[in-house]
Amino acid sequence: MNRRTTTPHLLESPPVPVQAKLAAAWTSFMFLYIYVDFFNLYKPGVVDGILNGLVWRFEVSPMLLTVMLASVAIPAVMVVLSMALPAPANRAVNLVVASLYIPYSIFNAAGASWEWTFFYALSIGIEVLLLAFVLRSAWKWPRIPAAARPATAAVRHDVRQ
């Protein structure tokens, strides 16, 4: 009897660049952010309020819509910036923006009734976890040890001679 032995194929997990992790986290944040706003429209009275010119307790105005657009545009732009900015600026911008969005995300539950606690706890909880991932990834950005850094000044000096 010929017994065929199989060995499991091990999957390789190549390192993922920090920029890709940050862009993926901001993309996930954007999807969630947009869907939470979309599902919020199903709450009783929300659409009626919008049709009557109110969002939450604010009158619909160009300023309100601009602020709302900016609150969605900033994380959207962070997807691109996370891939395009040089490491030092990338790290700083991600730390600042994610830090500002945590309280902003929590504010979205202000004035909500207890009936909607699970909806807001789940949505805001996941948003905050994604933002915490951004903060952790940016904070722990790998550094090049001083000994491994290229000696650009020495290289430039040698080339000129």
Report what the structure shows:
This protein has 6 helices and 2 strands, in the order H-H-E-E-H-H-H-H. The protein has helices at 18-40, 46-51, 62-84, 87-107, 117-139, 152-160, and strands spanning 54-55, 58-59. Strands 1-2 form a two-stranded antiparallel sheet. Helix 3 packs antiparallel against helix 4 (87-107).
For the secondary structure, the number of strands is 2
Order of helical and strand elements: HHEEHHHH
The percent range for strand residues is under 5%
Q: How widely separated are the two ends?
A: 74 Å
Q: Indicate the low-confidence ranges by residue numbers.
A: 153-161
Largest sheet: number of strands, sense, barrel closure: 2 strands, antiparallel
**What fraction, in percent, of the residue positions are helical?**
55-70%
What is the count of helical runs? 6
Shape: extended
Mean pLDDT: 88
Query: What class, by secondary structure content?
Result: mainly alpha
The whole-angstrom Rg is 23 Å
Strand order of the largest sheet: 1-2
Gist of the model:
The chain has 161 residues and is an all-alpha fold.
Topology:
Elements: H1 18-40, H2 46-51, E1 54-55, E2 58-59, H3 62-84, H4 87-107, H5 117-139, H6 152-160
Antiparallel strand pairs: 1-2
Essential attributes:
161 residues; extended; mainly alpha; 2 strands; two-stranded antiparallel sheet; disordered C terminus
